[in-house]
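User: My advisor, Dr. K., asked me to get a structural model of this assembly before our group meeting. I'm new to this, so sorry if the format is off. These are the inputs:
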Amino acid sequence: MRIGVLCLQGAFIEHMRMLESLGAQTSEIRQKRDLSRSFDGLVIPGGESTVIGKLLGDLDMTADVRGMIESGVPVFGTCAGLILLAKHIANDPHVYLGTMDISVRRNAYGRQLGSFACTAEMKGVGNIPMTFIRAPYIESVSGSAEVLSVVDGNIVAARQGSQLVTAFHPELTDDTRVHEYFLGMIKDK
Ligand code: GLN
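Assistant: The format is fine. Below is the predicted structure of the whole assembly, which you can bring to the meeting.
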């Protein structure tokens, strides 16, 4: 199984290590021609959504990545990756990939609570450690998007078909269950 990891900016190495520790092969996606390969899944990491979104555009990759997702290649977006997949961003006029029926708020926890950790339940995964770094949360889901986790009244994980998003960073913990869940989505396809 080969997972393409978008390596334009942000916490991509941690995703690659975690996926490889679970037996998946990973490939770095750094430029348009890297997308010509076939992938069983795609990871869009955390970082700065404005930077990753701009680079996707500048490198002429937005439509290709969107097309892969729309053709059903399973995708896992963490934090900035969640923002990039959203069809609506409450406090940003941009829509980047816009493939998932979620409305999100960037930097939703304000300065004081910008970064925090907790343990909470994620549906289908269990009780897991969650690390939030200047995180967004999901204000609402629509269509076939399903809420997988709520922390303090805010939606922090969701799934719509073959798209999975978390506002937190499972790749920065040593708990591999969210990545196992994603690999399970690929196997079940
Ligand atoms: N604050 C970042 C953004 O708005 C997301 C932070 C993260 O990915 N850890 O894109």
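One thing worth pointing out at the meeting: The radius of gyration is 15 Å.

User: Perfect, thanks a lot.
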